[in-house]
């Protein structure tokens, strides 16, 4: 697994600082900053710059947001029970996009 993939895997579940990332994957802090800069410039991660050290996290893709919407709508429909045919079609369309 490449270092960039390792960083993305670490950031999948939580926000981390560059120091925490470097420590987790055992690379020098300077190298870590370079990798983070690459991911940031590619639009794959963003940083919270409200305080230091900066924390990094993965940018939510439209597909990931759509999946969250599908999961939410699906669970609400299961609770309510009855949904219209149009709503079923909409859920199926969203499901096709996210899968």
Outline the structure in words.
Strands 1-3-2 form a three-stranded antiparallel beta sheet. It is built from five helices and three strands; from the N terminus they run H-E-H-H-E-E-H-H. It is 64% helix and 10% strand. It has helices at residues 3-11, 18-25, 29-41, 62-80, 85-98; strands at residues 16-17, 45-48, 55-58. The model has no long low-confidence stretch (mean pLDDT 86). It folds into two domains: 3-58, Winged helix-like DNA-binding domain superfamily/Winged helix DNA-binding domain (Arc Repressor Mutant, subunit A, Orthogonal Bundle); 62-98. Helix 4 (62-80) runs antiparallel to helix 5 (85-98). The two termini are 24 Å apart. By secondary structure, it is mainly alpha-helical. The radius of gyration is 18 Å and the shape is elongated.
């Amino acid at each position: 697994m490449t270092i960039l993939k390792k960083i993305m895997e670490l950031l999948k579940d939580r926000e981390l600082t560059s120091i925490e990332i470097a420590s987790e994957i055992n690379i020098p802090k300077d190298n870590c900053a370079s990798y983070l800069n690459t991911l940031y410039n590619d639009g794959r991660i963003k940083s919270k710059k409200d305080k230091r050290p900066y924390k990094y996290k993965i940018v939510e893709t439209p597909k990931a947001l759509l999946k969250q919407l599908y999961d939410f709508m699906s669970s609400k429909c299961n609770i309510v029970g009855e949904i219209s045919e149009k709503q079923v079609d909409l859920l199926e369309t969203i499901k096709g996009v996210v899968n």
